[in-house]
Amino acid sequence: MAKPRRVSLFVTCLADQMRPETAWAAVELLERAGCTVDVPMAQTCCGQPAFNSGFRNEAREVARHWLKVFRDAEAIVCPSGSCASMVKVFFQELFEPQSPEGREVARLAERTYELTQFLVHVLGVTNVGAHYEGKVAYHASCHLLRELGERTSPKALLEKVVGAELVALPGSETVCCGFGGTFSVKLPEISTAMMDEKIRAIEASGADCVVACDGGCLLQISGGLTRQGARARAFHLAELLTGRVPEPDRR
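Above: the chain sequence. Below: its structure as tokens.
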């Protein structure tokens, strides 16, 4: 089967509003890999905040719009395991399987990929010419790991970063950062306690930077690192791979 080369980028709300450098990095990586990238301007949210809060009807309306926007896409790539899993896994809970929308969900779910999965498993790309002189830890975000079952593609890309020393992050795959979307708003005390545990693990690893593949994790971890005066900083993996991460000052 021919590899898809025309990609529609699903930017996600957090990238659009809070971390646009992630979206720009995703475009650069895809273009380096030989893809033509378009960004549908009519796209909005995938509906996950409403879905997680129990507002199924509202989430269904947002999902209908998403399906309409990306209907003709050859491949849909998203720099977020969380948003990709909403489309690939949880859209199925919003529509009856045999309804027209349910069949559309099934069709588009097969064409939707998290960014690192698309690069590694679909395009067969692991070396993107990245360079970083420092210690790097990887935080496995919950939805990418548990809903999409992905643990290899981010590491495959990291292993090819020239100069980088990958360090083990205690609890990387077992301890959540505490963001959890609306969870961090509804239960801030528990969320903060979970974040504190993650920050302690990052500091114990000796990492200069920690990378993840979800904007929500990065908001949570970045805020914690800054407030606690930690040396390490958090970035999206795509940002590291495209040279948007400053190397540590060894002076």
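Residues 32 and 40 are 20 Å apart (CA to CA).
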